[in-house]
Amino acid sequence: MPLRLYNTLSRKIEDFHPLDGNHVRMYACGPTVYDYGHIGNFRTFVAVDLLYRFLRQSGYDVRYVMNITDVDDKIIRNSAHDGVTVQQYTAKFVDAFLEDSATLNIEQPVLVRATEHINEMANFIAELEKKGFAYRTDDGSYYFRIAKFPEYGKLSKKDFAGMTDGARVDLDEYDKDNARDFALWKAPKPGEASWDSVIGPGRPGWHIECSVMSMEELGPSFDLHAGGEDLIFPHHENEIAQSESLTGKQFARYWFHARFLLVEGQKMSKSLGNFFTVRDLVLRGHKPSSVRWLLTQVPYRNQLNFTFDGLTAAASSVEKLRNFRFRLTSNQFSAGATSAMAQLADDTIARMKSALDDDLNTAEAQAAIFDMLRKANTALDAAQAGQNNVRQGDVQPLLCALNKFDEIFCVLKDDDRPKMKAILDWARTEGREKEISSELLEIAGSAQLSDEQVNQKLAAMEAARKARNFKASDALRAELTAEGIIVENTKEGVRWRRK
Ligand code: AMP
Ligand code: ZN
After folding, report:
1. What is the pLDDT of residues 428-482, one digit of tens each?
2. What gap in Å lies between CA 499 and CA 482, rounded to an integer?
3. Is residue 101 lining ligand 1, measured as CB closer than 6 Å?
4. Could you list which residues have their CB under 5 Å from ion ligand 2?
5. What b-and-e string marks burial along 118-140, b requiring 16 or more CB atoms within 10 Å of the CB?
């Protein structure tokens, strides 16, 4: 079965076939870097990350491009207000976006920046004007003439019959149902940043950025274009109008939109003030892996309601997966293999694939891995009780299923602590000490023992135990526990890992 994806353009689930054999070209609208991104934004970025990972796991060679909107109305306004250049204003938030993406194990796409493509945008607009799709107004702004593009509305399925030719809107984000000619290029305003170009001084509108950069990186027709559901109209509708008017070819073939992350039934957004950044959650003591898990739990076409209970439950799911792997890799089993465990692993891999092929049903893929965990843990319990329900040769297939799962979901690597420590340090340099919770301090605050120090303490603990000095060995164990080290006794002797 091929991958099936919902295409906003056709409003149907379709088989996904790239234009060019095995090669997938995809584009996602990236962040507007006027502030830190919130976890609603990251819901969309994580959804596209899962798609990217799954396409590659399915054998595709993928070129994935994302833009960084480092010029728009808000950025221009804020940088003018702070008396700094656009680049100076956005640098911090570009870095923050890259750091937060890495914190959430989002693989980095090819990144392109709007401010590095201003000339190409001006050229594109000049072409549109030549073809009659754009016109200049007295102040030196340029608008797209919607009346020249009869297919306008085909993505958002809005009916624009009866629109007034020439009615204009110069805001980048507008939610009016009636179509207006939208700004391609905005004439300079006193005190605000602008660029000189072949069509005169000014700055690009938001929509033109994505048309220009996606086609430059991926060609006039490419496979898939992604973003959050709020971008369907006007942003993506306008991208289609600009691009297809210029080239006469179909722009993106599949349109992938992630539904919103909600807080108490409302869209998480900056303007409503009901948002959390990744950093806010870590400052409260939550692990990055819990946040990633939470964001992947609900399939991308369903709304995801954010709650702190959900975040706590996510932490426990991740812990179960990590414990399972620890159990598999730290125990010794008798030689040979059971057919039951190999079969279980194979079935799980097949179930995960068919779930993800089904329009990225992440919830079903997670259910499959947890079924495997339940069954394998029962067998491991029996093995520990001396039965041969799991043998050495079963470890590899079970690990293989777990790793396949983790190629997509990416929560197994136990690296929360250094990531949390980095955010703790950041909060201190930003003067946000008041927001640092005791939970965060407990996990990331203390100077971490090195692996070698842990091994030394463990050896001392063992030596004390062998000498029947239980007081000393208990004290050492308590010290390790306080340092976040979990010590476990296995048939093979003592093993340890970090909490
Ligand atoms: P922005 O930085 O505002 O341009 O948004 C970056 C991405 O986040 C876009 O794809 C938006 O559609 C998406 N987005 C914004 N708010 C949410 C939300 N509450 N849930 C999911 N995605 C969102
Ligand atoms: Zn875009």
Report:
1. 999 999 999 999 998 887 656 777 778 888 888 888 888 888 888 888 888 888 7
2. 10
3. no
4. 29, 210
5. bebbbebbbebbeeebbbbeeee
